[in-house]
Automatic annotation (TrEMBL):
Residues 143-169 are annotated as: Disordered. It holds the Pfam family MoCoBD_1. Residues 22-136 form the Aldehyde oxidase/xanthine dehydrogenase a/b hammerhead domain. It comes from the Bacteria. GO terms for molecular function: iron ion binding; oxidoreductase activity. InterPro entries: Ald_Oxase/Xan_DH_a/b (IPR000674), Ald_Oxase/Xan_DH_a/b_sf (IPR036856), Ald_Oxase/xanthine_DH-like (IPR016208), AldOxase/xan_DH_MoCoBD1 (IPR008274), AldOxase/xan_DH_MoCoBD2 (IPR046867), AldOxase/xan_DH_Mopterin-bd_sf (IPR037165). It comes from Methylobacterium terricola. PANTHER family: DEHYDROGENASE (PTHR11908:SF153), XANTHINE DEHYDROGENASE (PTHR11908). This is Xanthine dehydrogenase family protein molybdopterin-binding subunit. Signal peptide: none annotated.
Amino acid sequence: MATPSRYVGTAQSRLDGPAKVTGAAKYAAEFTAPDLAHGVVVSSAIAKGRITAIDTSAAEAVPGVIKVLTHKNKPRTAWLDYNYQDQVAPPGSPFRALNGPEIVYGGQPVALVVAESFELARYGASLVRVTYAEEVPNTDLNKNRDAAYVPPKKRSGIKPPPDPRGDAAGAYDTAPIQLRQEYKQAIEHHNPMEPHASTVVYEGDGKLTIHDKIQGVNNTQGYVCGVFGLKPDNVRVITPYVGGGFGSGLRPQYQLYLAVAAALDLKRSVRVVLTRDQMFTFGYRPETFQTVALGADNDGRLQALTHDAVAGTSTFEDYQEAVVNWSGLLYHCPNVTLDYKLAKIDTYTPSDMRAPGAVTGIFALESAMDELAYATGIDPLELRLRNYAERDEGEGKDFTSKALRAAYEQGAARFGWSKRKAEPRAMRDGRELVGWGMATGVWEAMMMQSSASATLTPDGKLELACSTADLGTGTYTILSQIGADALGLDLDHVTTRLGDTALPEAPLAGGSWTAASSGAAVQEACRKVADTLLGYARGMADSPLANADLAHVTFADGEIRLQSNPSRKVTIAEAMRAGGAETVEATGKVKPSMLTNMRFSAYTHSAVFAEVKVDEELGVVRVTRVVSAIAAGKILNLKTARSQILGGVVMGIGAALEEESMVDHNLGRIMNHNLGEYHVPVNADIHDIDVIFVDEHDDKVSPLGVKGLGEIGIVGAAAAVANAVFHATGKRVRELPITIDKILG
């Protein structure tokens, strides 16, 4: 079916924008019910030990307090760990709130106070008295590195490091240029605008309607059914809008468990909203120590590469990321050894945070490549070009496409890289040292099994439906663009419904796979609608399209036209009348090609160039310019796509210079658990960010040729900033974030 791209590939404003800026968009904590009660979580005051006594009498005596749930009176739930494991759970025993007196991490929920109003519940929570037998917490990853282990059970969807190739140790020992350094990534927390919340509406007869802060409603539904023994038909989850997730909403969090437990126990609706400081009591990007060793010849060509990483995980789950794998595929090198281990500490389980593993691993690799550039006297960009990988050497596969050379070229030209003075501290602007740095970014281009429905009415109105989530990325808009183009409709004639388990099932919104997966499902559903319409049109008496098939017609302006003679046409309304149909409905189901995945590797790539200015006396760093050149296949919406890269770069700047969850290891608790002390970039920190999308045709990665953009914008950004800081100051900081004390110290 040939369809002109009237909307796909253009810049379109978000269709959900007016609802968000006017307050019409409802989030998880904004839905209500006539019998709604409010729950407030009481968090543990220690990081490890046991509850020896819990006194709820004062709270229960407050008029309007309905009940206080603790480990002593919580409702009965499933026994097996299997029932608590969600779609992205790592191996281990998922955390169970109020499961017993044991305290396994700081801020663990120990009670839920349910009252007629939020204010009463919050007051009641302040009256709960908990007595503990405290133990010494073990939260220092550095002290546990010697006990690190290779996780025995691998996390589904996360590839372990590939087998070694060549003899990395031997090649390193004989290499003329040798470099070995350690790099560290601090703990980071997601901090989306919308805090985690669940509103559980009790419908009677054990039926629930749940509004949950989640990046995939089907994951919440499956979790609730597994834990509480409910049938899927009795649990509907509706999340039309998500106020940011960055991965924090991939797994059901403990406020959901508590809200559902209270609703079933009280047989009434319950809402539980976590406070901003409680947002620091679950998942995070884990602290990670990495060692990268590069051996090269005098021309800078890699002879040996080793990359070892040790990351923290909880005592109850083996959380895993692909941290070191990128080093085996990004550059050509005959001898590579990669190693990834975990160390258990007394914290909650880490969770996926925008480009999990890649942000961490690429910072170390690209910092090491920059150090190699200075050690060999080769321009950092030229060094990367000399080591350019034409295929995935880790997997032994060709790429579906790779336009990274074009990204290097166009990014460098836009940035003005050729004007860079090679020596550190050679560029100035008044009292500030000026530094230019660059890095490569890479992220998997994935497609997942997905489904979507399309319903067309005779007046040319199209409704698309899919259970996937829109995290603020523009999913409502791009799916509408695809549907409008597929059937030749005006964009304002297309309505898209998302985030509801009553809709065709889609995967979690994560991994940058939503556009490729749900977009392809929408395209397939519309193709089926088009096929049905054409069948109706061919059946008309004296039909101008009597012998046409989909390959020879075009849908445009509410008409089905013969490509070779557009004057031969049938309107959608005429076709539906001929078929006696009030609506035409179809469901599209798609899945990735196993054969393609076996034969090819698919990745997005980027070239990131950063300029920093560093106050020589004060050590204050400003990121004044960033150019991010992206190779990501077909771009569906230039406006929302650019926004995705802008957001990723901003997060990368935050990781480079500001974001750090600080743990007091004596207490085992995060100390800066608020947005006053956990620093994120603000308007004054962000200056010029220029985004380039290079042309990249890919007919293998997905039916739409798209690769996804959610993650690639952040990958490499922190490394580019760190490399620019070295160029400005001559001081190499190998620990993120790069704070003033590290520059002046």
